[in-house]
Amino acid sequence: VDSVGNDEAVIATNDDAASCKRCAVALGYWHDRYISYFVRSTDRKAPEINRGYFARAVAIKILVDKFIEVNNGNCQIVNIGAGFDTLYWRLIDEGKSVKGFVELDFPGVTSRKCLYIQRTKQLLQAVSDEDYDVKLNRHNLHGHTYKLAGVDLRNISEVEAKIKESDLEYSLPTLFLAECVLVYMTIHRSSQLLKWIAENFKSAFFINYEMVNLGDRFGDVMLSNLHLRGCDLAGAEACQSTETQRKRFLDAGWAGADSYDMLGIWARLPPEEIARVTQIELLDEQELLNQLFSHYAITTAWTDHRWSDVQL
Ligand code: SAM
């Protein structure tokens, strides 16, 4: 696997994402009663950042819920580079159960998540089942439906072994979710992963939230901010445009793909939600938010044409 000097900085991006989500939730942008078990402090972020996280959270919620609904829950979810994401607990609260739910991340992240789950009754209860004893070790948690596994996503044989241990069924419709993850791997490694998924899961749907349009001045600033923190965006070439995002899936053997930047996504969000959140904080500069929105995109891809209708 590639050099790992950068891994600590990549792992730290999860703390950042989790603390931004915590801040936006504390201000009322969306509801999440679990994020505070993973992040204590509510450090205030800029209004543009909060609104950016809101747009991403609500758009992904709509897509995930649609996929579960069209499958009547007879499906699985794999969250790639899940960090401290709380999606599993939200779904349980809303009664939207699925057949299997797997979270993958570096062992340095999953060990902390294991610890938080273990010591928090509200988190542990939702992964427990009367007839099934939760198995836990330092980096992995194996519940009846929920599995959390420490793995380096650049190592396909490791990923394959973890997926096998998770009792996923290759034939069931399966949603893969990656939020700001693939960009930290070289394009060679991420396409290997995407190819492996497409070859093994005949009915897969992918939601990828990631940067785009990195070639311009604002994109340069985003890249250098990450570099300053020691993060190498090894896969930035797939983030040049919505077209390169679509192409990476098609080249990896996916049957179809769509990609929209967050300006386009924002325009499709429920108007009443937009009206509500624009009241929470005033923006100093609409232009900064527009710049942010035009530098992130949601790409969806499918190996099964039935899922091409899962759209915002
Ligand atoms: N998806 C989460 C979210 O949106 O809150 C976390 C996003 S964080 C920016 C990126 C995550 O990807 C981190 O948790 C990091 O550890 C994980 N990641 C990146 N490269 C990885 C790799 N090669 N193997 C395992 N995890 C990786």
UniProtKB/TrEMBL annotation:
S-adenosyl-L-methionine binds at R56, G81, D152, L153, E179. Transmembrane segments: none annotated. Methylates the carboxyl group of the C-terminal leucine residue of protein phosphatase 2A catalytic subunits to form alpha-leucine ester residues. It comes from the Eukaryota. GO terms for molecular function: protein C-terminal leucine carboxyl O-methyltransferase activity. One of its GO terms (biological process) is methylation. This is Leucine carboxyl methyltransferase 1. Belongs to the methyltransferase superfamily. LCMT family. Its EC number is 2.1.1.233. It comes from Cherax quadricarinatus.
